[in-house]
Amino acid sequence: MPEDIFAFYRDEQLRKEAPLAARMRPRTLDEFYGQEHIVGPGRLLRRAIQADQLSSIIFYGPPGTGKTTLAMVIANTTKSHFITINAVLAGVKDIRDAIETARERRGMHGQRTTLFVDEVHRWNKAQQDALLPWVENGTVILIGATTENPYFSVNPPLVSRSRVFQLKPLTEENLRKIALNALQDKERGYGNLRVDVHPEALDHLVRVANSDARSLLNALELAVETTPPNAEGVIVVDMAVAEESIQRKAVLYDKEGDVHYDTISAFIKSLRGSDPDAALYWLAKMVYAGEDPRFIFRRMIILAGEDVGLADPHAIQVVTACAEAFDRVGLPEGRFHLAEAALYLATCPKSNSTMAFFDALATVEKEQQDEIPTHLKDASRDHDGFGHGEGYLYPHAYRDHWVAQQYLPSSLQGKVFYEPSSQGYERSLKEQVARRREAQLAAMVEGEALAPPEVLTTSPQDRARDRWLQRVISGVGEQLGQMRDRIFAAAALQRHHLVLDLNAGSGLLTWEAMRHVPEGGVWTLAADEQTAQALREQMARFPELERPIVLVGNIFALPDLLAARGEQDVRFDAIIGRNSLTRLPDKAAALKALVPWVADEGRLHLAEVVPRHTQRLYELVDLKAEAGLRERLIAAEEAIYAVTEDPMVNWDVDDLRRALDEAGLVGTVSVETDTSQTRVTPALLERWFAVKTEGRRFTYAQHLLRHLSVAELAAVRRIFETQLAQQVISWQTRVAFVAAQRG
């Protein structure tokens, strides 16, 4: 018992003496700032933590973004036994001890074990492999934290069994809230002290901390702890104190890590894209962080060959000369030569025509080895015996030092590798190379001893296209698939996004959304309980946490539906829908009702069929022999689309644009006409001409009977059955695609 008391007081003393950053570590999700894309309301990770249903996960992100903090929040929330290991200090023995503890807990108490491995990338392959079987069979739930890209630094089998969540650098607003919280917290922070941090001093601390919460709190602690109170007992942290507490901006840069590779990638892409300002910025970031200038020069020399090439043959000379000058001068003056080389590359013309070499290399790898043409072989050894070199035409003996002759193997005649660009110096080569190729090919055709050239244009067999040509027509499914693909291409979803499908129906958009946002979440709005139940039955094969959340009702009921689930704070990164507004009388009001549920950077993507412009059935048949009936049929069918009280047909694309404006949304409405192929089956004809139906909407025949007699309708039906039965027709549909966001 005394030992327990001493341990308690020791831990309590250590807690009080811990750095401010450690004391202020959040204990619950409500105290956690930032990373809303993975722990915001409604997100998968937040739901998993709250439900204590975590599977193995890996947190990846730069220092100070909350990886370890999130793990500690989970430790405070979960009912499982929690074990923490630091990969820098632990080895295989520690893994075995943790596994043994986990097995005992499960066997004796039925309790799960969560194993948190900080800096998991520090373990070698053998250490990571030692953990794999126990993650796979569920003995432990792994939470790994790493600053390195797990797809490079963690064993693929371990990554494949875990969800990877990427944490992003904290915003200045996040950091400001963290600092203010530390100043106000009376238990763990400085709430019991009188501290006055000037606004400009706080701005400086936040700015120089550069997204790192730990760096910010360390600087704030230094400022408060080393500043004596003034005469009134107030600790004043002004600009001078702030600058003294955090003098140099911490640039996130690891010479062997992701930021190293990402930054040099951004630099090279800026040079390739001819943006001198961006090139200088990324160059400055690397130099500031202490990157090896020789590495930077090496990459610029590569770019001079790969991306500039013959568009400016002097580029490689300039960069090489700058690199040699740097070797003689060194830092700091050598920065002039770094900048000169970067600016030259960023402003000179570009051509990647040297990539032609790799086309040639691929040909060498794939093509059957061919004989070197006899006249190109070495004549110094066996000219007399084998005739090697016979027939070779010496270019310098001809005008312009060039003559047409065969240089490629016979099987590759006409093969083109090098395509001169129209940039810089290479522009002058373009016409010359083309003219010589033409002359050379003509010589090949006319030469008696040479085989005719290969066909110059050919395509590999497109089996997918052949299969498509052979498929039985099923235009409706294809049309819906194209509409779905168009919506998702425009939405550009990220894996962590929250998505709301406004009109679940058959689940066409819902299931596709699940594939796009495995670490986010999908919510779907079903019009009635029958539709909802059908969706739930289809979802049953998915793990509970991954299933879409089904709401039953309409757009206007969203506030009550979300509040009933306690999710009134949820905001969607994308709201999608197919024919979600078509039947609603007030489309502007519906759009306005959606605005509060769109995240700040969220977007609305809808596809709405415009019934007013749908295919007219009278256009599918020939009624020339029935002139009088034809006019009456056209008038009767057009009347269907002129009913001002029917929300299905009383609107057009311009009305949809006005509805967006009234709702305060900014976006575009683009219109496409889709044509699909449909077979007119007896069942389809029966649906068109059914007179008695229990459906909520009128059939085609019921609409026509408002203007035609029963006898005239029977005549129209006979014409349709005679001309269209079992025929494949083209069916046109006009679709309005809406892409909008908050104004």
Short structural description:
The chain has 32 helices and 14 strands. With 743 residues, the chain is α/β, with parallel strands linked by helices.
Q: Give the class-level CATH name of the largest domain.
A: Alpha Beta
Strand content: 5-15%
Major sheet, described briefly? 7 strands, mixed
Total helix count?
32
Physical arrangement of strands within the biggest beta sheet: 10-9-8-11-12-14-13
CATH superfamily of the largest domain: P-loop containing nucleotide triphosphate hydrolases
Oligomer status? single chain
Overall pLDDT level: 82
Helix fraction by DSSP (H/I, runs of at least 4):
40-55%
- CATH-assigned fold name of the largest domain: Rossmann fold
Shape: globular
Distance between the termini: 65 Å
- Please indicate the count of domains: 5
Helix and strand content put the structural class at alpha/beta
Radius of gyration: 36 Å
Low-confidence stretches: 445-476
Provide a descriptive summary of the structure in words.
With 743 residues, the protein is of the alpha/beta class. The protein folds into 5 domains: 35-166, 3-Layer(aba) Sandwich (Rossmann fold); 258-350, Zinc Finger, Delta Prime, domain 3; 354-446, DNA polymerase III clamp loader subunits, C-terminal domain (post-AAA+ oligomerization domain-like, Orthogonal Bundle); 484-610, Vaccinia Virus protein VP39 (Rossmann fold, 3-Layer(aba) Sandwich), CATH 3.40.50.150; 616-650 and 681-726, no CATH class. The protein has a 7-stranded mixed β-sheet with strand order 10-9-8-11-12-14-13, with helices on both faces. The protein has a 5-stranded parallel β-sheet with strand order 2-3-4-1-5, sandwiched between helices. Strand 9, helix 25 (529-539) and strand 10 form a beta-alpha-beta unit. The two termini are 65 Å apart.
